Structures are given as C-alpha cells and as structure tokens.
Amino acid sequence: MPTIVVGDKELNGEEGKKLVLVLEDHGIDIMHMCGGHAQCGTCRVEVLGGSVEPMSPLELRTLQTKGVATDGHIRLSCQLRVKEDIAVQPLLTVHEMGVGPGPRPRD
C-alpha cells in the first residue's frame, strides 16, 4: 500500500484510488469543487517528492486555463491515482476558501 506524506502525516493509500479521495478520507483539508472532473482546478497539490503518472491532456488544459505552471510539480489530485509513495501539499483548502467542498469525486 503506497504511503502519501502530507506535512508531518503519513497516510496509507489504496493503490489506484484518486489522491483527492485518499486525502479527504484521512481528514486532510483539501478543496475540490467539480466532483473530480478536472474542470475547476481547486484540488491542486504540489508534488514534493515521489513519482506520479504523466499529466493527461485534460489536466494540462485545466491548469493552463487557470494560469498554473505545468512543469509537473503542480497537479490536480482528482486526476492522480495513488500508485507509489509520494509527498504532496494541498494548495487550496476548504478552510482557506471559507466554503464547503463540492460533490465528492467518484473513484
């Protein structure tokens, strides 16, 4: 089972599960608004370490539309599937945004 490091927390993530769901299921404060469809860009994370799958054209287009650097360090957690150990930092949180998250993304 892959390990996801967020700050000083280590989470076990079910292999193949969307990163946004692993984070949310472990009580990590992460914003998401579009239900995991890579449309809103609010579930962004910075990948601090580890290996992640290549960015899809949809994810790339959403990040470009939002004016986010697309060098691979900033990713949409709704588009990343947990496959290996990684370290991430959520960039937008429910607490900071002051609103509740959108619909729970499907796995």
Automatic annotation (TrEMBL):
Origin species: Paenibacillus rigui
GO molecular-function terms, A-Z: iron-sulfur cluster binding
The keyword Flavoprotein belongs to this UniProt entry's keyword annotation: yes
Pfam families in the cross-refs: Fer2 (PF00111)
Protein name: (2Fe-2S)-binding protein
UniProt KW keywords: FAD, Flavoprotein
SUPFAM superfamilies: 2Fe-2S ferredoxin-like (SSF54292)
Stretches assigned to the 2Fe-2S ferredoxin-type domain: 1-94
InterPro entries in the record: 2Fe-2S_ferredoxin-like_sf, 2Fe-2S_ferredoxin-type, Beta-grasp_dom_sf
